[in-house]
Design brief:
single chain; mainly alpha; 0% strand; globular
Length: 335
Amino acid sequence: MRTRWRIFFGVITLVILIYFLRKIDFLKVWDLIIRANHLYFFLAFVAYGMSFLVFNIRSMYLLKKVVKPNFWFSLETTFAGFFINSITPGAQLGGDPLRAYFLGQKYKKRKTKIFGALLADRFFHVIASIFFIIAALLFILTYVPVSFELRTIFQTVLFFVLFFSLVIAYLSFRKSNFDIELFLARCRWLLPGDKPKNGHKTKLERILIRHFTHFARTFRTVIRDKKMIFVGITLSLIYWLLNFAASYLLFFSFGFDISFLIVIVVFSIGNLVGDFSPSPGGIGLIEGASIITYSILGIPLLIAIAVSLLTRIIFYIYSLLIGGLSLVHLEHTVG
């Protein structure tokens, strides 16, 4: 999505959020938070922590044909990757090249091969995410009495989610034999340096072809392995369920009984908004979208605000605090 559309999307979300929050007394929200049941807050924190462990185990399993890293080192690169994802806008892909770099440096393996496996890992992660997003939108369209305008918005979002899911699947499987040499030949005029004659390749072209070949071969190997597909998607589903459980437990900390399905719906829509956000890591917009959706689904606004903010605060403790410390340590010991 182009930057101007990201900004437009972000402004619209913020305007809607301001409309919802214009009469809220945030002192009441703070009072609600400090009176929360600490046990459930701790369990929510643990659930989020376990999701990072599952994320790391999935990555290690899908990396095993390229590199077999130490569990704790791999976990450290995972946190560092989440740190980068949290300070960059959009779909949170910036951490994977960083992880590939540190794993390649540590174990003296080709970084392009490692990146290919990590991108396949991300592919399964996205598939599970899309599954929950589609389920969330279908739930709203089927069971929630909403206005015609809101229903139209959700139908449009669902259409685009399905469309992009099909595009991703098509590009991943039908175009997996992408001809990099033909592509570079057609784009040769864009490449710097002198243009070779008689069909010879430039040094830059040879480097690009070699690295892309390593990357593409590894990516195809992982996403075509039936066992890896099963494990990758299963662990991705567990990762997201632990994320949902964290928010679910926070509702219990306020003594509020809620359907786990509603938590799945709201969390999924919040992440969808974050993927198109112009702000780093979707900060502000994920929280805003969650608050708005909880309110639409009948959750008291004060509780919706408290749960949405605490959910993201727990995430930021892991991704920014622990992730930032992990990145600093990796730079000093490996980089």
